[in-house]
Design a protein that fits this description.
By secondary structure, the chain is α/β, with parallel strands linked by helices. It folds into two domains: 84 residues; 52 residues, no CATH class. 36% of the residues lie in helices and 15% in strands. The protein has seven helices and seven strands. The strands form two sheets. The protein has a four-stranded parallel beta sheet, sandwiched between helices. A three-stranded antiparallel beta sheet has the order 5-6-7. It is elongated and about 55 Å long. It starts with 15 loop residues before the first strand and ends with a helix. Bound molecules: zinc ion. Zinc ion binds next to loops.
């Protein structure tokens, strides 16, 4: 059909995303890389489109029909169904590898993370963590605390591969 509405991917200066309900892992990866990414299990198509338009967010979905809606202004049809390939795909499509800011956003809730003094949160730490780590970040929205544990080191090397595009 020639009159079919085709969504085009536009790239605003500040990349913001909204992922559909099937792309939770991808949303976490994008947050890990510091990109503002909305994702909630309860979003329906209409909410996703409304939020995308209102907040100038790129819709990420594997659902062609969602992007066919005439209201959609900006979106990308995700091809891969493997999360680690999806994140590479998005970074490539949005030319965003150079914009990665690791560990600046909470992977759970998309809130902004800020450094927090150890003494301020010491009673929330497990003994092992308390003994072995001194630098912490806290999510300004949900209060979750992050530190450079073994999980963090694995994510860091994953991010290095994303940055270099390998
Ligand atoms: Zn959070």
């Amino acid at each position: 059909m020639t009159n079919e509405h085709a969504t085009v991917l536009r790239l605003p200066d500040e990349l913001r995303f909204i992922a559909d309900v099937h792309l939770g892992r991808l949303a976490r990866y994008l947050r890990m890389c510091g990109f503002d990414t909305l994702f909630e299990q309860y979003y329906d198509d209409r909410e996703i489109i409304d939020l995308s338009v209102r907040e100038d967010r790129i819709i990420l979905t594997r659902d062609k029909d969602l992007l066919k809606s005439k209201k959609v202004r900006n979106g990308h049809l995700v091809h891969s169904d493997v999360p680690v390939e999806q994140i590479r795909e998005i970074l490539c499509a949005c030319d965003a590898a150079g914009k990665i800011k690791p560990f600046t956003r909470c992977m759970e809730c998309n809130g902004v993370m800020e450094p927090v003094g150890k003494e301020e949160i010491i009673d929330r730490l497990m003994p092992m963590t308390r003994d072995h780590y001194d630098e912490f970040k806290r999510c300004c929205t949900c209060g979750r605390i992050y530190w450079e544990g073994s999980h963090f080191i694995r994510m860091k090397s994953f991010i290095m591969t994303l940055k270099s595009g390998t």
